[in-house]
Amino acid sequence: MQLPFLREIDLLQPDPSIRKVLIFRLGSLGDTVVALPSLRLIARSFPNAERIMLTTFSVHAKAPAVAAVLGETGLVHGYMRYTVGTRNPFELFRLAMQIRRYRPDLLIYLLDIRPLKSARRDRRFFRYVAGVRHMMGFPGQDGLDYGYDPATGLYGSEASRLARLIANLGDAELENPSSWSLDLNATERAAAAAALGSLQDRPLMVCGPGTKMQAKDWGQDNWRALLAQLSFRYPHYGLALIGAAEDRAAADYAANRWTGPKVNLCGRLSPRETAAVLEHAAIFLGPDSGPMHLAASAGVPCVIAFSARGLPGTWFPFGAQHRIVYHRVDCFGCRLNTCIDQGRRCLTSITVEEMAEAVAGVLDRRTDGGRIDSALTARLNP
């Protein structure tokens, strides 16, 4: 997808008369969506500033660049390249000189939780090597955990933690649906409508069964069995499958026994066009993934087979309309990308029947007006 607004900071000429904000946030689709309320708070706080994001340009074939998610929202005006994990002194020197040429008035640090010593090392780099004088968002001790609610068994969300890091700027308004809006335009919505065809005129399930991480993969046979059950129970629904081009074959397999109308959109749409497809959905089904966060940003209820590699609640889709199936096995919070020794038992213990029941808990409670009368539920025990 061509992004004519995308520019690296190397193309800019420093102008001391323009106030400049440099936002340090890494990641791709899901990482960007959960940061939306904080990015909107920054934009409200510095409406006349040029806001540049220091971020990764490509992490994985299935992980779109931040620019492809934000589009022309105006939340940021350009991008500066960061290479994840680099310790090459020449690369770090290049980055420091790039930042010095830009001369930001303020650096806002919005990284995932990392050891305090790493955050302090980053702070020294930006202050003493890159020459940034004013910074915010670096975590104190309260920014190094998510917080835990014993009443629910859930930890605080990443979106809440990011908002806490920049609370001095004001309220990020996490509960306001407009804080999560991607400001989709008419062209993106038209592309979604064209891709859906006749499916846009009937109730729609959207499923994104693919994941780039083995530890989050519920399994193709499980998705296939679940969609077969749902096809029988909800014959008036259409099905749209979304994901990267690499997910296309797996999506075809998952939908092999779906008897109603369906369309496989994997690899055919941009992230923002995919978000426009999700605006038509009654429900989204999938693993912990970027498309899950896109669905939540559009207010779509999600039913998720959620890996226990992360803490329960931290990366759950934001909102109270979702059904999360999370089995809190004794190795929960392992942060593994690949699970061999335990055989992904947090996921393999999730049954097709559990997921079907969760879907019914959403769809069978829809009102005539299309609203969902439900609250977030998460099964935390095997």
Q: Could you characterize the architecture of this molecule?
A:
There is one protein chain. The chain is of the alpha/beta class and 382 residues long. It folds into two domains: 9-180, 3-Layer(aba) Sandwich (Rossmann fold), CATH 3.40.50; 186-379, Rossmann fold. 32% of the residues lie in helices and 14% in strands. It contains 13 helices and 14 strands. The protein has helices at 29-34, 36-45, 66-70, 89-102, 116-129, 158-165, 186-196, 220-233, 248-254, 271-278, 290-297, 345-348, 352-363, and strands at 20-24, 50-55, 78-81, 106-109, 135-136, 148-149, 154-155, 204-207, 238-241, 262-264, 283-287, 302-306, 323-326, 377-379. A seven-stranded parallel sheet has the order 10-9-8-11-12-13-14, with helices on both faces. A five-stranded parallel sheet has the order 3-2-1-4-5, covered by helices on one side. It starts with 19 loop residues before the first strand and ends with a strand.
